[in-house]
Amino acid sequence: MTEEMKHDVSNEDASQVPKVEAPPTILTGDRPTGKLHLGHYVGSLRERVRLQNSGEYEKIFIMIADAQALTDNADNPEKVRQNIIEVALDYFSCGIDPEKTTVLIQSQVPQLYELTAYYMNLVTVARVQRNPTVKSEIQMRGFNADVPVGFFTYPISQASDITAFKATTVPVGEDQLPMLEQTREIVRSFNRTYGPVLVEPEALIPSGEAAKRLPGLDGKSKMSKSLNNGIYLSDSPDTIADKIKQMYTDEGHLRIDDPGKVEGNAVFTYLDAFCEDRHFEAYLPEYANLSEMKEHYRRGGLGDVKCKKLLQAVLEETLEPIRARRHEFEADIPGVYQLLEQGCETARAVAAETLDQVKDAMKINYFSDASLIEEQVAAYAKGGER
Ligand code: ATP
Ligand code: MG
User: Fold this and answer.
1) Which atom of ligand 1 sits closest to the CA of residue 176?
2) Amino acid 99: pLDDT
3) What range defines the domain where residue 89 resides?
């Protein structure tokens, strides 16, 4: 066993660690680095709304991760500040209901950072370096050794967010799986070292390849705010039409009669994520479903323009009601801030309770542990010296 492995909780036997039970609770979130896009919708937001309305969860927390956004935007706090309201508007317009879901802003819950400080002692640098999401995000942002420490350690901060609310379930896109694994390791390490306090969360990944990781308009990298390669939930119909026109399809499909490739063709990936059989009845009755349409494209004889027109109609059907609700919330910005402020207050109370339990387990509760003082008094009384 190498020195690194000795400290690496992922290599230890999970079965020895007592499991902590908790009522079904959700935590997810987004970085306020831009408006939310279709990737967020299919990867997480659509599922969050469904779970919220299922009544199966006792508590739901959705976090606007402004402190995490600052880890790679330290020089641009204004960008983060301005996008908090954008993300909140996107949530409420997609159907997140403040009566059922607590929407909070990360930086306003200081307990999260205290937890992070303690969790950092349970994770090695080598372990964070192995995290494939961190690796690819560092590469994508052109960081080398100059990666900010805060950015490098954000998986640990994410573990604090999840465990502070005792989340059992975290609905996220596939890119977040390594983060969840890191959290689970921290939970096991903490519980083994200090006693059973933290709850081990499960990731909830959407079904369907397209929804797990929706590509950008270029069809290559993941749709991401930072790459600005997306269709935003609040884009106007004209903007969406323009973006769809520019979308990457199959380079080899030059004439309508040429056989076309469906795999790696972003138009079909988006159709996979959004299209249902009923859409064919409404917009393209010559096919019963997407499989039939794909078959025709592969054979040749189906043009890109027709495929793109269908995509536009399907997206418009999905986004039109979201856009309309957004306009209603946009008319009451102070009201939206009020909802966020209430959410932060609720979140602080829950996180404070977890932090108290964590500090009790770690025995950093000097003033609330009467037995500590009593024992020391007794020890000194006996011998004068310890
Ligand atoms: P940034 O570029 O600032 O990291 P982002 O577009 O990656 O922004 P995040 O705020 O990091 O968005 O991600 C929020 C949630 O949305 C996560 O659960 C993530 O898995 C999910 N998500 C983001 N992009 C996609 C995508 N293209 N496909 C599926 N899920 C996605
Ligand atoms: Mg991201």
Assistant:
1) 20
2) 96
3) 3-213+332-361
